[in-house]
């Protein structure tokens, strides 16, 4: 099995610091990249067979596609401002150019497209915000591209976990094509921490424990979830942000809870 833990590297000539492809991950659907662009830098790409969701993690930009232009978008200068981001959806067989108007941290979320929908801006006011869990299981959710919004494959969400709290919890999984009970979805977690020198923990395990890894996550790391349960814990003193990208054969999020931990829903 490929390494489930990816560390960022220095920006290449295009500003890329992280890359996940279906080939590198050993799966079929999800691709993910992060770019750290300097003010004035431009990124040009063809979407090819994939639909794309560009998430402006921090900074401001102008984004052009084959037919549309989204001028001077972006507001937050850190994910920990905890306001929803500006994002841009782009279909397959299209192209995009991103011009960084400030220093820009950009996530590129990819999955197979069918050409069903046109390019569009997803402004902050269109991002559904919600609270999930209670007590030490509380976290804040921003649904950037949920299943009731138009896309062919992609599901994109960001989560804020207070220091000392646990999220993606009680443990759940979505690794079986067994609808209506469970859907098969590959998933990436892109992590940031505040303060950035912190760390956190993520466990990935399946029912028979043929997969059972606990990963020490640091700032800007990516964790791959090819199967199994995947709870996350932020340590005291360091709040957490992560961006999830999911995709599979059917665009729906149906998960199965770990039976031995379902009692936690009664708390």
Polypeptide structure, described:
- This is 5-deoxy-glucuronate isomerase.
- GO terms for molecular function: 5-deoxy-D-glucuronate isomerase activity; glucuronate isomerase activity.
- It comes from Planifilum fimeticola.
- Its EC number is 5.3.1.30.
- This protein has 267 residues and is mainly beta.
- It has one helix at residues 22-25, and strands at residues 5-6, 16-20, 31-37, 42-46, 50-58, 61-65, 69-73, 87-90, 95-100, 104-112, 120-122, 128-132, 139-145, 155-161, 166-167, 172-173, 175-178, 182-184, 186-194, 199-205, 212-218, 222-225, 232-234, 239-247, 256-257.
- The chain has one domain (5-264): Sandwich (Jelly Rolls).
- It contains one helix and 25 strands.
- The strands form six sheets. It has a seven-stranded antiparallel beta sheet with strand order 1-22-19-24-14-13-12, with no helix packed on it.
- Strand 17 and strand 18 (182-184) form a beta hairpin.
- The mean pLDDT is 97.
Oligomer: single chain
Round the mean pLDDT to the nearest integer and report it.
97
Give the SSE string: EEHEEEEEEEEEEEEEEEEEEEEEEE
The structural class is: mainly beta
CATH homology superfamily name: Jelly Rolls
Query: Could you give the count of β-strands?
Result: 25
Quick one: biggest sheet? 7 strands, antiparallel
The percent range for helix content is under 10%
CATH architectural category: Sandwich
């Amino acid at each position: 099995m490929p390494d489930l833990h990816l560390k960022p590297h220095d920006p290449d000539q295009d500003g890329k610091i992280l890359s996940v492809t279906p080939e590198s991950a050993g799966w079929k659907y999800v691709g993910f990249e992060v770019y750290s662009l300097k003010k004035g830098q431009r990124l040009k790409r063809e979407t090819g067979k994939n639909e794309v969701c560009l998430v402006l993690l921090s900074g401001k930009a102008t984004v052009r596609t084959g037919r549309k232009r989204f001028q001077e978008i972006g507001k937050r200068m850190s994910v920990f401002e905890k306001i929803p981001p500006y994002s841009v959806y782009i279909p397959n067989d299209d192209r995009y150019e991103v011009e960084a108007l400030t220093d820009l941290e950009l996530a590129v979320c990819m999955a197979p497209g069918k050409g069903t929908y046109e390019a569009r801006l997803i402004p902050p006011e269109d991002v559904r915000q919600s609270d999930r869990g209670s007590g030490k299981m509380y976290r804040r959710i921003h649904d950037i591209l949920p299943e009731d919004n138009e896309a062919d494959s992609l599901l994109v969400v960001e989560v804020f976990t207070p220091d000392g709290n646990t999220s993606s919890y009680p443990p759940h999984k979505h690794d079986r094509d067994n609808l209506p009970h469970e859907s098969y979805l590959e998933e990436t977690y892109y992590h940031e921490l505040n303060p950035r020198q912190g760390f956190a923990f993520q466990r990935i395990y399946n029912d028979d424990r043929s997969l059972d890894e606990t990963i020490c996550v640091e700032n800007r790391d990516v964790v791959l979830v090819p199967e199994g349960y995947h709870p996350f814990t932020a340590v005291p003193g360091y709040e957490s942000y992560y961006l999830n990208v999911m995709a599979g054969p059917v665009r729906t999020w149906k998960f199965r809870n770990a039976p031995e931990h379902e009692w936690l829903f009664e708390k």
